[in-house]
Each structure stands twice: as structure tokens, then as C-alpha cells.
Protein 1
Amino acid sequence: DTEVTQTPKHLVMGMTNKKSLKCEQHMGHRAMYWYKQKAKKPPELMFVYSYEKLSINESVPSRFSPECPNSSLLNLHLHALQPEDSALYLCASSHGQGTRGYTFGSGTRLTVV
Amino acid sequence: QQPVQSPQAVILREGEDAVINCSSSKALYSVHWYRQKHGEAPVFLMILLKGGEQKGHDKISASFNEKKQQSSLYLTASQLSYSGTYFCGTAIFTSGTYKYIFGTGTRLKVLA
């Protein structure tokens, strides 16, 4: 299995909703990442988990809450989002520090209304 | 710290060649290249680790200069399937760990 699977593919939520994005990989990668990508812009790093511990939080607002229940799963919990949070959210994983490259999931297209 | 890519956008006819550059003000630990098609995830193309390194597969190749501050991606005899946005990326060591950042991106469109 050489894929990163993200669900759901599309999500529309209101500003008072609570939702979660899920990411799963079975490649034995021990580093997992959340990126946010706006249209026509490069992905921006949000969080890094290394061996299931949060190692980097790029000053992301607390309305985004990551969770890594085990080495194969990564969640992003969403609460009280703003319309400007609408974007493509990408999950990625890598061996170690990623020197062999990163594998990305197909993303969740999030729209906040 | 974000690598800067040039050109920002390029339009080609099938069979033409293109070069995409990725530049940094500081030496990079490594450089990766990705292609992203509209609405899809970035797809890993290749990684370069050493100054002076060149590598490639099929008609896509890349180089990393000796000072490790510039990398170039070469697309030869372009095909329609090459259309997309190309990103270089690099790992930056900070706070005891590596974090990965992408370059500014180059939009490539190949016309029939």
C-alpha cells in the first residue's frame, strides 16, 4: 500500500460546526503532516507529527486541533472556522525526515459558509 | 526562507522544452520536485541531495548546483500530461526537527 488516504474528499461546514478530517497511511511512515493550500498558492505547512508526537505547530489558530491516535492515523479537528479557512487540506507522510520524498493524500476540499 | 521559482508561468506547444528554476538565498539541505494537477495532490518527481547532482527519468531531469542554492527542472519534448503546477521544496531544520516548505510554484501549460 503506497497511498495516503484522506476523508472526506469534500466538506461544507458552517462556522458553528465541529468536523474532523481524517488521514491514513500504511507505509510505515513515522512522520505525518497537515498542509493547507489556497488556490494557485503552494501548500503551507500547518503541523508535523514525528513518531506520533507533535513536533511542529506553525502558529496555527486553535480552531484547528490535530491528533495522531497511532502511527497510521492523523486527524484534524475543526471548530468555529471562518470563511477564510476554506482551502484544500492536504495530509502527507514520509520516512523519517522526508529525505526520500513525501507522499501526499488527494486532499479534502473544505468550504466554510 | 521560501525558495523562489521562475518563471511563474509558462505555455508550451507539445514537443517543446522548458526549464524551471528554484533559487534560495541560503544553501539547501536537499531539494525535491513535485507536480500538482488542478484539484489533485502534489506528486513527488525526484529529490536531489548533493551539490552538483543531476538526475532524471524519461524526459524529466533536474540539477542541483554546487553551492546547493539553485536547482533546475528540465522538461524535454513536453507532452500534454506535463501540464500542471511544479513546486520545488526543501527541508529546513528548526526547533530540533525538519519542516518542509514549498517554493512559489510554476504553472506549466502544454498545448496541442
Protein 2
Amino acid sequence: AQSVTQLDSHVSVSEGTPVLLRCNYSSSYSPSLFWYVQHPNKGLQLLLKYTSAATLVKGINGFEAEFKKSETSFHLTKPSAHMSDAAEYFCVVSDRLRGNTPLVFGKGTRLSVIA
Amino acid sequence: DTEVTQTPKHLVMGMTNKKSLKCEQHMGHRAMYWYKQKAKKPPELMFVYSYEKLSINESVPSRFSPECPNSSLLNLHLHALQPEDSALYLCASSQDLGVPGELFFGEGSRLTVL
């Protein structure tokens, strides 16, 4: 079965410094992987997705992630954090046994940005 | 602005009440979802509809009853809920169940059961 592990429950960075949110996945199939962001009291928004094309994926708001099959990782990065990046981030893998749509969420990483 | 609209945004109900949550999308998506999210937790899948038919039911208690009247609408009927059912209920849609693509989420309905 597919699963994702987000290695940090909370990450705190200073404004203007790089962001790294770590995600490892487990999948019996070639996975589709996603990062979603959730701001307080809001729904989830897709940041970026990997679906077997380029391994370096660029998303919205300056975020990007690199799919590394050898390390089974899909870490999310951003060169310079903004205050508005403070939110909960979820790494998600598609569950191909049940139709491909992303159904398996990681536990989430809360990103705090300090002024 | 989200393209998935959920109403109401907030709902307070007693354990004997009957209420409904509503979700609407006009993106032509054929798959729609209900998720439940407790504080500081990831969303948990409840139901999936594909082409207006129930495709996945994650063993949700019968006090939650989904309904998909047409391809744009998804309802969640609530009856005899428990306080532990208090949560944020998120609706989402996707182009199709079989295509690995993104889910579009609404902003959620925050439910409090007294």
C-alpha cells in the first residue's frame, strides 16, 4: 500500500531564509506525488505535483520539489521564506489501487516563519 | 477564490438535529469527495462519488449520509451526530477518479455538535 511520511511535524524558519519540508513515500507502483498547503481555517490548495514527467517540479509561490526514486523522497523547498508561507503543508501520494486520485495524506508539517 | 463552494461555513447542531452540508462545483469534474479533518490532523477520506455514483465509502457511520443529486452537487446529510463528530468537513472535486490529478478543495464547513 502507498504511504507518505513527513519527517518533521513543525519547521520554523526566519523570513528570507530557505525552506525545506521533508517527505518520504512508499509505493508499490510508480507514484504520483503532491504537496498541498492549508492556511488557517481554509481548504487545501495544490502547490505542485509529480506525475512521472520531469523530476524537478516547480509550483506556485516559488516552491519546488524534486522526486528522487533512489531515496523515495519528494522534499519541498523554497529559496526564501515569506511571512505568508506560514501554514500547514501536506505531502500526498496517489492510491493507484483505488483509482489514482490522491487519497493518502501525510500527517502534515506546520511551517512557522519568524520576522 | 475557490471554485468549490461549501455551505454553511459554520454549523452548530444538537445530537438530535438533522442538518445537511452542501457542496457545489462548476468545473465539469466527475469525481467529488467528502473529507473530515480534526484539528492538527490531515484530512480523512469519508466518501467518493464518481459519475454521480458512490465509489468509495470508508466505513463511515450511517449517521452520515451522502447524496449526489447531479454532477455539480454533493450533499452530506447529518443525523444523530455525536460530539466527537465535531470537525471541519471538506468537499473536493477532481476531473476524474482514474486520472492522477489535483483535487480542488472548498474552504470547508466547520461543524460543532453539542
